[in-house]
Amino acid sequence: xxxxxxxxxxxxxxxxxxxxxxxxxxxxxxxxxxxxxxxxxxxxxxxxxxxxxxxxxxxxxxxx
Length: 64
What we know:
By secondary structure, the protein is mainly α.
């Protein structure tokens, strides 16, 4: 249930940090796009990792 929130949250966090950096360094909108993209990449990686861990745990302990 937490996986969609993890993905969306990482994109928003990356985009927000990029937005703040853009305002500070006057580079609009480049850093927001780059850091938001990195947040998306990190979110997808984390979702895949957690889904794989869950599948391994279910394979190890099958429920009748």
